[in-house]
Structures are given as C-alpha cells and as structure tokens.
Amino acid sequence: EIKLNDSEQGPFVENNDDQEKEVLENEIEAENSEVLEGKLLEEAVQTLIKYLTDRRQKLFKVLNYNQGSQSFQTNLVNGDLDHFLKLAELVDTTLLKSYMVINDALVGPLLRVNNYCNVEEVEGLLLERKKFRELKDLYHGKGLHRKSLELLKNLGQSSEGPMTGTFHTIYYLQRLGSENFDLLLEFATWVLQTNPDEGMEIFIDDHPEVENLPRDKVLNYLEDISYDLCIKYLEHIIYELKDRTPDYHNKLVFIYLAKIQNLESQKQKSNSEEIIGSLVKEIEDTNNSLLKFLDDSNFYKAEKILGRLPLDDFYEARAILLSRIGQHDQALNIYVHKLKSEKMAEKYCIKNYIETDDPTKNVFISLLKIYLRPSNGEKIMLDPAIRLLSRHGSYVNASDALNMLPHTTKNLLLADKRQVEEQLMFYRSRRVKIDEDKMCPQCTRRIGHSLSDSSRKLLTRIQPSDDTLDELL
User: Where in the cell is it found (predicted)?
Assistant: First the structure.
C-alpha cells in the first residue's frame, strides 16, 4: 500500500491499490466464468468498459498529477511505482480487448494516445485481426520505430492490401526526427529505390523534423545514391530554405559538373540515336541549371571551382567564374576565341560595364583590344570591332578607339563620314510635298490628315532608302 499526502494524491482517492487490483481481477474473472452471448455479452462488456474507463482516468491522474513535485516523485520511488504501472497495463490492455469485442473502431484512438497496453499481448490480437494501422500506432506510441518501419515496408512492398506503396513509410520517416537519423536512412533506401521523386519528400518536406535533419549527412547519403537526388536536395536547401553556406553552394556546382561529365561519358558509349538524343537534352538542361546558378549565387568560391574545371571544357562556366574574380580580359577571350560569340561578348560588356576614365578598366576597350590587338598569333578581327563601335560607341572614348584602329581603317571611316555628310546635305536641300492623296510607298496607305501622328514613323521608314525618298518625291 502506498500512502500519499492529501496534497499529493490529487484526484486519486483510493487508499488500497492491492485491493483495487484484486477487485478488478475478480470482476474480469467473474465475467469470463459465464458464457455470454448476443445482447447480454454487449451489455456486460459495456459495463466493463465504463468501469475500466473510470479506473483508467484515476490511474492516469495519480501517475501524471503534479509530477514536478519532488516529494511526489520520492513517494513513488520509495513506494511501489511498478505496482501502479502494472495496474495501468492491466486496465488498458483489458480496455482494448473490450473495444475489439463490441466496437473495434475505438482501438485506434486508444493506441494513438499515451497508454500502458501490453505490447506483446496486443500485438498478437492486432495481427490476428489484420489491424495493421493500429499495430503501427502501437509501435509508434511505444517508441518501437524499427518494428513499425519493418511492418510498413512489408506492407508497402506487397502487391495488394490497405497500405501498399511508399506513402505511409514516407509519412512516418518525415516525423522520425534527427535523433533516429540512422534508422531513417536505413528505411529511406527502399523508398528511394522504389519511387525516388516521392521519396525525396523525406528530406525536403516543410515539416520541422525534416528541416532540422543534419544536412551534411543527408548530402553524403544522397550522393552515394544519385546525382539527381543530391541536386534536388541542394537546390531545395539553397533556393527554398535560403541556406547561404558556401560549402553547399560549391557542392551544387561540383555535382552539376560531375553529372554532366557522367552523361557525356554515357553518350560516347551509346550507339542508340534515341538514347543519345535524350542524353544531349539532359546535358543541355543540366548545363543551363549550372550557368543560371553561377549567375545567381553570390556565395560559392569562384577560385575553388576554377581549380576543379577541366581546361578543355565548360568554357561558358569558366567565363562566368573569371568575371566573379575580375578577370574580364580572360573572360572576353573565352567568348571571342573559344565560344566564338560576338553577341555573348557584347552582352558581357553591357552587364559588367562600369563608367570610368581609366581605359584599363573599361570592358568595351578590353573587347576592342581583343579584336584589334590580338595575342598568340590571332588575326585582327576588324569587322566585329567596327560593329562594336557602331552599336556601343558611346561607351568608348573616341581617341582610345582611334588609336587602336589600323590607319587604313581610319581613312575608310573618314571617307564614309564625308559621303554620309554629302548625302545629308543633298536630302536636306530637297522638299517633299505631301497632300491628302499622297500614298506611303512603304505601307501603301493614304497619308492624309494622319501626317502629324505618323510623320515620325514615316520618316523612320523612308530614311534608309534613296529609292523610297525619290518615290515619295
């Protein structure tokens, strides 16, 4: 018998627990001594449930009441705590059996809350009735996660049944938490092998337990399985969770590169046009993701990545990395001589231009030098240089540009300038008479009273063509 002070008893009013247990066992024995059927059985079990529910409430109150009290804990330790726990186990196990007799829908709610059911005894009953969801709840409530996950795996891999597939295992693992991380990885493997897209929700769901998983360990695990899974996880923590850790940003770049190289190797070995086409598309998509990330992220280490890039590949990525460390000349050389893209070189200059009086810091001057003063035996690229000046001359100091142009080019430009000036003087000396019946030679519509609205567009259309102006005259 355990004696509690009045202030420590709380709502539990029983004084003799041995007597309580004896009464309970006698009542159960009495119920079992007669063969009850039909309505009589139902009424008897209902009465038993009512009694057990009342006993359960009082037991839980004494086990949970004021547990922060040191004197309460001392009394339980000095007394017989096991006695209370055994009594609670007897009550809950008997209550569950009673539910299974008249209303098994109540079994699940009982197992999903704190309970003292005997695991071995209840486990056998639930397996016999094939109540797998309730069995999973029993295991979970008792912290028997391995048993629960083994059950879910067996059910999930079966061809038919109420819990086939990966959903239930994914849901369970998402709430397992980092304290059971090794167990989580162990049972995540079959899910990822079966359904990798859905299985990744184990690691990228917005549940708190998922977000708090150790990211380094998750990365190491996923990298051993698939580049794609590793990329998906890194993109999630970087783009969605806004993780700015440089190591993760570097890692994503390295995984992109490794995947592209792996796909290129597969492409070289394949003889199927269909497979090669699919690989080419995947390489292109991955490379686009790589370039976008290199443009968007400010947290990777460009020098570290440059050291890992092959010298004979990934030229566009190298140019972006060189721009990050201010090596504009080298980046422009790649666009001009490796990628052979005048458009990309000019786009690069527009993006990286900074207004300055120092010609050595003007990216347009740098590009002009690459065209007009090439090194390593490259030929002068006069036409691209002229086009650059015609499109972006306002960014270049005229004297700097003229100093780089060949003498023959300067004379040609001067002659062109004089010819244009003469043409301008000629057309300015002529008059154009436009009346209501005059037709536009370009769009063949009557000009009429709309001249004031359309004159700018009209002049824009006819300006480049001498024939058009003559036709209008």
Answer: Endomembrane system
How far apart are the C-alpha atoms of 447 and 457, rounded to whole Å? 12
- Half-sphere exposure of 16 toward its Cβ, with a 13 Å CA cutoff? 6
Sign of CA dihedral 104, 105, 106, 109: positive
User: In the block, which residue shows the tokens 């355990």?
Assistant: 2
The single residue listed with the structure tokens 């003087």 is 425
Question: Please, is 383 exposed, middle or buried when counting C-beta atoms within 10 Å of its C-beta (0-12, 13-18, 19+)?
Answer: exposed
Which two structure tokens, joined as six digits, stand for 200? 């990744």
The CB-based long-range contact list for 401-410 (8 Å cut-off, 24+ gap) reads 401/365, 401/368, 404/368, 404/369, 404/372, 404/373, 405/372, 406/372, 406/380, 406/382, 409/382
DSSP 465: -
Domain ranges of the chain: 1-143, 331-429, 433-473
Phi, psi (deg, nearest 5) at residue 256? -55, -50
Residue 408: count other Cβ atoms within 10 Å of its Cβ: 9
Cβ neighbour number for residue 94 with a 10 Å cutoff? 23
pTM (predicted TM-score): 0.75
Q: Which two tokens stand for residue 66?
A: 């004021």
1 vs 170: CA distance, rounded Å: 47
Quick check: helix, strand or coil at residue 145?
helix
DSSP at 378: P
CA angle at 235 for the pair 230 and 237, rounded to the nearest 5°: 95
Q: Residue 210 region, left (φ>0) first, then alpha (ψ -120 to 50), else beta?
A: alpha
Rounded to whole angstroms, the Cα distance separating 113 from 425 reads: 96
DSSP state of 438: P
**211-268 pLDDT, tens digit each:** 999 999 999 999 999 999 999 999 999 999 999 999 999 999 999 999 999 999 999 9
Give the number of residues written for the chain: 473
Specify burial of residue 356 (Cβ count, 10 A radius: 0-12, 13-18, 19+): exposed
